[in-house]
Amino acid sequence: MSIPQEHDYIGLSESSPMERISDKLSSSSSSSSALSTEENSNKNKTSSLNLKETELRLGLPGSQSPERKPLPGVSLFGKDIDTNTNGYSLSPSKNLVSGAKRGFSDAIDASSGKWVFSVNNGSDADLNTGAVLFSPRGDNGNTQKSSVSKKEVVGVITQSSKPVQEKGSQVSGANENNNAPAAKAQVVGWPPIRSFRKNTMASNLTKINEDAEGKSGFGCLYVKVSMDGAPYLRKVDLKTYSNYVELSSALEKMFSCFTIGQCGSHGFPGRDGLSETCLKDLLHGSEYVLTYEDKDGDWMLVGDVPWEMFTDSCRRLRIMKGSEAIGLAPRAMEKCKNRN
Amino acid sequence: MDPYSKRKKELPERPPESTRPSPFPDEVLELVLGLLKSNKDRSSVSLVCKDWYNAESWSRTHVFIGNCYSVSPEIVARRFPKIRSVTLKGKPRFSDFNLVPRNWGADIQSWLVVFASKYPFLEELRLKRMTVTDESLEFLALNFPNFKALSLLSCDGFSTDGLAAIATHCKNLTELDIQENGIDDKSGNWLGCLPENFSSLEVLNFANLNSDVNFDALERLVSRCKSLKVLKVNKNISLEQLQRLLVCTPQLTELGTGSISQELTERQYTELENTFKHCKNLDTLSGLWEVMTPYLPVLYPACTNLTFLNLSYAALQGLELANLLRHCPQLRRLWVLDTVEDKGLEAVGSNCPLLEELRVFPADPFDEEIVHGVTEAGFVAVSYGCRRLHYVLYFCRQMTNAAVATIVQNCPNFTHFRLCIMNPGQPDYMTNEPMDEAFGAVVKTCSKLQRLSVSGLLTDLTFEYVGRYAKNLETLSVAFAGTSDWGMQCVLGGCTKLRKLEIRDCPFGNAALLSGLEKYESMRSLWMSSCNVTMNGCRLLAREMPRLNVEVMKEEGSDDSQADKVYVYRSVAGPRRDAPPSVLTLSVFTEGTSPKCRRWGCNPYFCDMDG
Description:
B: alpha/beta; two-stranded parallel sheet; globular
């Protein structure tokens, strides 16, 4: 268990639970040692970035996204996300199209294994030129191919090709070990979807997100739900539940696959009765605590206020490890103690 | 009055071995053969003997050209004098995904110029992935007095001004179908250019245009056109406006709605519901842009006879889809977004026993953070409920070999299996193994498979399977897959019916490319990009196979010896002369010459005119 570190947040209170979550995530991976060196070096930069975990990735140039490690039993994209020990990271402002819309300025931090791409409202021309790097999978240590595809993808990298090559070789090396970082750049023409559809969906999504963000749109209220250690978030519509019990059981179902991984059994979410019991224990026992961020940006324990008040003020949900919920509520602390 | 009544026998004399005179006069033969619609049949017929060849040529009214550079307009006109309908496809399919430089070619203008002189009575033009300028559209509108039907899919180079020209001058227009093009959408004024007394329209599809059209003009148009069968409006048409349109068009068979997002009063809702009740002839429903789902039920009465439901722009949730599908008992084809998730696909399985085609598009292919979408579970659920499924396009973020094996066991009749695991090179997420066995199962079980798109982590084993079992395969799309040249060699060696092969980001090199030397003339085309092919390999190919056009597109700043993108296709027209500087045409021939064809006109085995 890592020691929570204090950071200098911009506009946030000290020792926000979020950074601990970030630490938690980063240390839970098997390859944490290599990572933590890197993490430490990025600590200052990540102060405002831990917030990124909970936000849509509309990163500004110069920001890097925090690492996110999958659980051993679960891989986000089916491969173990490993860090590249070479702390190669692109300086985003150099590498990106100057005219890129805001959605494009996320850097690809190869070493972090992070997919960073945000919804782009622009034309496919942006998609082309905003692409940064992609490491093709496949156990070919073919640097040349990698670099060719990168060159195809990278329209405006003004750096010399050497760093690109480096990355290529290191990534290929990683590929050989079947541990390619999930550094996801925007690959030209992938997934294979026509520009018209891409553009239409991008603008639709912005609309939906705008509508649903906090304010109840026409009868739906989507908030993000994240869970410690889970590789990705979910979204739930609070309007579809009428009380805390319904919400709680829906979340249990939704995240059961991750906790089962933690339980130690492999895969098979939901079908094994045993696993569900295990999950209920996890959630109702003391392992996890359901918290939410309210309109003021404070993190609260779910269940204290009447349901309607909760749906009105809830901005996002987080399923936190009980041990991380220190300071939120005495109840949470008690749970931890009882378990131990 | 047959404009082509002047008969010209341009042929040499009948060969000596044919001594028996034809039992039919030419006119009868032509009449009989004129009843043949299938291009494949016509192709076979044309090979019987010279008389039949001629009769077929004279009786053909529609020509399909799958690769516009495989033949020249002059050759086409020489062989088929009586064409009234042309379908042309231009750029390689990967141009849809921005892999082909913008000015690559496939411009319709040179075709139109020849057609204006040889086919002045041309009625229909259907183009896919061609470059079409406003000038060309105006040329088309002014030079073909009988012109009736224009369909543009995935084309580029034009604006709504070009549409205005068509609307203004084509007095006999029956079809205007504008889909998913790179169009410069300046305004909706083009609609108003249709004359006030114009009433022949049967098909109007402007769903993908974003500018506002004048609704009053549209309403008047629609009420005048009593033969209107297909109406697909854009998202700017509100529900209320749609209702007014539908009142005039009870005979519609295909409807593309506008937005379903307007707030309705109860009275409006009831009116709409009633209007939809009268749309009993609908077999296709699409659109549903920006859908506000509480209003979906208003569509239910119109769904009784639906066979094709296109929800691929409507971000529905699973429950909403389930409710809708309960009212679509006749559904054969369904396109959805992955917002419906596995739950929605379970509903598909439960409610659509007649389903033959399913396409699941990703709502948000690039956003990793919010992972909605479908998984293998949804696909499996569909396969249990929809045993007649034979066409699938499935975008997902995770898949397993076991799931695919189950799916094809349930649905062994797949003809089109296009699976896109969106993370390139991703293995089976449960076992961490390559997805070889999944596609192995597909090709072993689905003997009728014509089209296959593979994805995920794949070794050469996948391609061994494909080469060994996929004997009916015609189109194969490969990305981020394979281990060595051997993979591609297996495919080229084993898939006897292969016509189109498109590959990107795979470790296939010259050995693989050249192993298909003998094969490419029996194929429409080969595309290889970001592979390991070099310029020398391409030059060798071009040298050995003079009847192939070998084109290389170079990236800026790439290694001189690398052939970044290679496009190889058979052609009887020789290397093209309209390639931009970034496209290198490798050819044995000097400028101006072209390879001789075996017969005058073209040989159907070389000429791509029959697809």
